[in-house]
Structure formats: structure tokens, C-alpha cells
Write a structure and sequence with these properties.
Layout: E1 2-8, E2 11-17, H1 23-42, H2 48-70, E3 73-74, H3 77-89, E4 90-92, H4 106-122, E5 124-125, E6 128-129, H5 133-145, E7 150-152, H6 163-182, H7 186-205, E8 209-210, E9 219-220, H8 221-229, H9 232-240, H10 252-270, H11 276-292, H12 294-300, H13 311-319, H14 326-347, H15 360-363, E10 378-380, H16 382-387, H17 395-416, H18 419-425, H19 428-444, E11 447-462, E12 472-486, E13 492-507, E14 515-520
Parallel strand pairs: 2-3, 10-11
Antiparallel strand pairs: 1-2, 4-7, 5-6, 8-9, 11-12, 12-13, 13-14
Length: 524
Amino acid sequence: MTARTLTIRGEAYPLVLPNLRDPRLHVAAVIISIHVLGQVVLGFRVSVPQILAAILTCWILEVAITFRQARAFVWPASAMLTGSGVALILRVVGTPEHDPWSFHAWYVFAAVAGLSLLTKYVIRYRGTHVFNPSNIGLVVAFLLLGPSRVEPLDFWWAPPLEPPMILAYAIILVGGLLVTRRLALLGLAASFWITLAIGLGILAASGHCMTANWAFSPVCGLDFWRVVVTSPEVLIFLFFMITDPKTVPTGQVGRLVFGVLVGVTSTLLIAPQTDEWGAKVGLLSGLVVVCMAKPIVDRLVPEPRSAADRIGAYLRRLVGVGSRSFAPRVLVSAVLVAAVVGGVVLAGTPARGIALANMDEVLNDVPTSIDPGTLPPITVDAGVRDYDHELAGGEMDGVLATLARNLEIENQALLQRDPALLEAVDHGDRLVEMQERLAEAEVSGETVLTHYDFDAIEVSLIVPFGAQTGMSLGLSGTGTMTVETRDADGNVVSRTDEPFELTFAMRRALGDRWMNVGVLPPQG
């Protein structure tokens, strides 16, 4: 830092400005570069006023607090990192798309950033703060506000081989490697990543699945492992969040153990999560938990910079190499590893079985009168073409035919009083709606059927914002619908025709087959 003075009303105060060699400025350069990419080409749903609200709140608080403590004006480099880190990961439901100057919910960013910064001064142990400020602030915000109000940035921002994503990777990797190496924290980052990769590999092998905003179907097995382990979000977490020098052990062995523990804890917290929201919060929460346990870690590892603070020597001593206790210690270590593996598999139980086998066999015997040749031509939005060129081509005809068949199978399910048919074609809100209609039909004896005759179809992407439950196709259709009421004997009591304009949301919610997940007003 460069020391100068600032005179106010005749009194001189020290003015401490940033030094270009300060690693915090290098971290800031990386984060700001990602912010710029997010605004220009990656389509981050966060506005410039929201970002500035977080950064300026931390700037003002830090300057005021340090002035009160030291009677000096100090450039708040760490505080601004806290604010920019919060703004990078936090998203508020309802933020308009493609509006970089929206002031929507700017105060949420300010509040979360302010809370994050204040933890440095309120939650302290032996003269230093306990938690990485942006990490604890984000976790508290997500858990308190919930997925209906806030969500974390997606694990994936764009297809990995697109130029903007390649550039983002280059910035994160080059900047992260330079900063962590300079701070002697590269070993900690590597131990975390390797542990997380192994832990998620165990989860993937056990059949783990999660839903994500950027995928039509559950992300399972090897795809799940690849998506999370190579995520740019995970790289930011390991390079710029868990490597906060103030909140990690100072010794070589302590840092290695710290990284392993964060990896294990994050894996255990990710394991039961069925959607990306929970998985991302689980990842962030792993650091919170281990930061709380850091005093215990400090007692279990050698004194920093002592002769024993060498990883090789520590591992040999841990297993008792060359002593009579070698075999028992190896056995105990094997039991502990097995216990952790078993714990990961057990914790992941709720997230297995999300993706089911193709349901076509259940539906083969259900008669429908759908003639694909009678369906109208399809207009496909550019967003669908950009996401999947094959889907935007001939495959879309099959999706429309599946929608038409699903709608008719819903009618068959109501007539036959067969809830299994509904579960084969519907999911989420649409399944709940149709189950309620089936229950009403069983009570009243009257069945209301709806037949759709499409005149036009436009297809776009529907990306949920909040509960990260999976991307859908929105088939916006117009035409005529016939509403038919039948009595308990199946006789037609009434029939009316009326025009409709609706959006049918479809997703591969349980595997390969497209299912109806909602019928919505026209998407404008």
C-alpha cells in the first residue's frame, strides 16, 4: 500500500491506497472480468445496479469501520472483493432478462453484501474472522430466503466449447493459478478439488441425479460428475473462496487437511440434493461447516513451519510407518475411508431414482387417434436453435406429436380412472392438476375431457428462475379445443368448441420421454 494523507477541516488523516502488487487486486481483476463477460456475452441475469449495490455497500461499510478503528482512510480492497463475489453468485427471482440497468431488488444485493462484510467484525476467533465473508453471507441468504426468492448462479453458463466460455475458463484458470501459487494455497485448492472429484465420482456411480435450469432431463451419472467437477462455478469457489488466507490454516499440512475436509463435507451436503439449487448451496455450505471446525483442525495438525509440517512426514506418522502400530492404523484408516464412502452413498439416497426408464412400454396399449400428418408446421425460436440444432430441426415434429399424444392419454387416464397413465405422461404442476381432476371425476361421476386441434405452434425455451427444476420447451399453440363432459356410463352429456391460445411446457422430467409439465397462459 502507498501511504499518503488526506486533509479534512485542517486535520490530516492517513490515506492508504492500493498497491498494484496486492494479490487482492489480481483476484478483483478476475472477478470483474467474469462480470463483464456475464453482462456482454454470457447472459448473466444480474444487472449493473445490482452489482454496484453490493460493491458500494461493502465499500462504504469498510471505509467507515476502518476509519473509526484507525482514524485513517484505507482503500477497502477486501470489502470490494466481498461485494463483487456476492454479486457474482447471487441471483434474485424476478430480475428482468436482457436489462442490464434494472434496479430490481438492488437492496437485496446491498443487504446480503452488507451482512457478509459485517461477519468479519462480529464473528471472530483469536483476533481474526472465522468465515469467508461472501461465503457465509450467501449461504445465510439462500437458506433464509429460499429458492422462491433467490438462487445461486448456475453451475454452467454456456456450452463449454463456445468462445465466451473458453475465455471465461482461461481467465479463471490463469488468474486462479497465479494467485493461489503466490499465496502458497495451490495445494489447498488441489486437495479440495481432488477430494470433491472422488466424492462426486462415488455419488455418480451410485446413480445420483439432479435437475438443472439448463437441461431438459435430469443430469445423472457421469454427466452429473462432469458437470459439477468441471464447472466454472466450482473453479471460482476453489480458487477465490476457500483460499481466503485469513480463514484457512497457515501450515502446509493444515491447509491440505482443510481442503480435504471441505471436499468431503461439500460432497456429503450435495449428496441428498435433487436439484441444482440444493447442490450449489450444499457446495457453499461445506466451507461454512469446516470454517467452524478450523480450531479443531489446528489442534490436530503439526505446528506451522515446524519440522513436522511436511506432508510426507505427516502421512508416514499418521499411519505409523516403520512402527508396530502400522497395521492397526492402516486398518483404522481403511475403516474410516469405507465409512465416508458409505456415508456418501447413504446420504445420496433421496437423489437416486429421479430418472426412470422410458415409459413407452406402459403407453403402447393405450389407443389414441393422433395422426402426425394433421399437425401444423412449427415455428422455432432462435433460442432453441442456439441450444440444440437437432432439436430445432426434424426432431421438433416428434416433440409436437408427443404433446398431442400426451394430451389424449390424459383424457384416457380420466376415462379409465387410471392414475398410472397420468404419471407416465405428466410431471410437476401438470401432474398435480390432472390428479386433482381425476379425484373430482371419481367423486362426481362426471368426466371432463379436453381435445385440442392445433392451427399453429411456436416453440421457445422456458427457463425457470428460482427453483432450479429443469429447462422446458414452451410450445405456444393456437387453435380450437373441444370440451366434452361424460356421465358415469361414458355417455356424452355436453360438448362445446372454443378457441384457445396456450403454452404447453414439456420436459424430459424422468428420462428420455417428453412429458407435460404445465399448461400456461401465452408466453409474451
